[in-house]
Amino acid sequence: MSELLAPVLTLDGPSATGKGTVAAEVAKDCGWGLLDSGALYRAFAYIADQKGIVVDDDAAICLLGTELDLKCSLGPGGAAVILWGDVTLSDEIRTESAAQRASYYAERPSVRAVLLQQQRSNRRLPGLVADGRDMGTRVFPDAKVKIFLTAAPEVRARRRYNQLNEKGINASLAAVEEAMRARDQRDEQREIAPMKAAADAVVIDTTQLEILEVVTKVKALLLCS
Question: Would you call 52 helix, strand, or coil by DSSP?
Answer without folding.
Answer: coil
